[in-house]
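Re: the 223-residue chain
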Amino acid sequence: MGSVQVRNVRKAYRRDKQEVPVLDGLTLDIREGEFVALMGPSGSGKTTLLNLIGGVDQPTSGDVIVGGTNIAQMKGRDLAKWRSRHIGYIFQLYNLIPVLTAIENVELPLLLVKMAGRERRDRARKALEIVGLADRMKHYPRQLSGGQEQRVAIARAVVSDPTVLLADEPTGDLDRKSGEEILTLLDRLNREFQKTIIMVTHDPHAAERARRQLHLDKGVLSN
């Protein structure tokens, strides 16, 4: 279910009348249950690749197959529905809603699916327990540390039991200790819950926590 195949993917953006290639014929295989770190200089296409795998962006050409579904051929509502079911996204800047409590933030993705309010609340509570924040459910983001905010964001990413977790610089805004705690949590989600995780990072120390490191430079991958 959680395998990812990127096949001969090309992605180019238009700037004025010029076409700017970002990825040029990229092919990648990630097995179900892998924890992969994606490294590379700024502008190398790391976040573009993550967004293609997450169905946030679409390739100019080529195939992106996640869990057996070729999402490069999906559009609009179908793609949004697929994404809400199969992808959990973790960002560098937590993206929590300040007027909602931790548990209300975690519940948000479940509002997109038909689910009883009680089940939604139970699943959000369980996700917060997994990330070690059972005692902070009623706290607002401003009452939490950066590391705790990122834990809430991770709980929000896993609450719908997604096929693949995508993490874009998840420790980039944290001090070393909080960053270590987040990496340990991702490691646990991978080992204990068999989550397929693809993490973009510029930090070699963070990348070492993954089972495999890939380097992207000018749209070309190397091990």
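Residues 176-193 form the longest helix (18 residues).
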